[in-house]
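User: quick one - fold this with zinc ion bound?
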Amino acid sequence: MEWQTKIQTLYKKILLSLSQCDLCGNNLYNDDLLSRSPPSQTLICSSCFTDIPLFNQKIIQGDLLNWPAINKALPKIYFDHLFCLSPYLAPFTQWLPQFKYQGRFELASVFANLLAQQWQNSVLKSSSADLVLSVPLHISKWQIRGYNQAHLIAKPIAKLLQLPYDESILIRTKKNKSQVGQTGSQRRDNLAKAFMLAKKLPCNTKHIILIDDVLTTGSTASEISKLLKQAGVAKITVLTVCLTLPKS
Ligand SMILES: [Zn+2]
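Assistant: Sure. Structure tokens for the protein plus zinc ion:
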């Protein structure tokens, strides 16, 4: 019918105008792609997708702590396993600030899809976890920003990995100054007793996946891991979108 053709043409025009690659500006869709949109690629074209600098999880066996330079750069950590998607390089140097400070919430599902995909491809089944948690913000920071970026990433990841997620277990009790430019030991001093458990962990929680956007010195994730281990958790996996590579 003629009106159906008109609507379809209009729909295609709207879709094409809305779907430019976030990085290069090329159109994401052509006619035969209108019906499919892989979740991790809804924002970027396939050539930009292949350019994303993902860690080679095979070489490090799905754990960045197997990489001697990373292990050496993260002294005194309480977590057991570190899984990050990418070093903090483009396009993440553009995406993470946009996500964190400019409210580009659609990026959360891109990060979650990529992380879950990589996790399922590279991490052994024996590493299956019992619970997903996210690094909390202090209430005052949350009130200013209006959201917790780690929570926005953790929620879809837990769903994709089919694991329970609880955003109300961990709370941040101490308000910290910005950690930018501080050394690892300064950060550790600031963070001492900065977190607490608002309620008991579910029975038999042995392995927890803790999610944050970026891992830099590891001190925040480590402080939370220490608390969780004191509460009886045997293994903590830290899962982040990016890792700021140590300066060599
Ligand atoms: Zn592109």
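One thing worth noting: The two ends are 66 Å apart (CA to CA).
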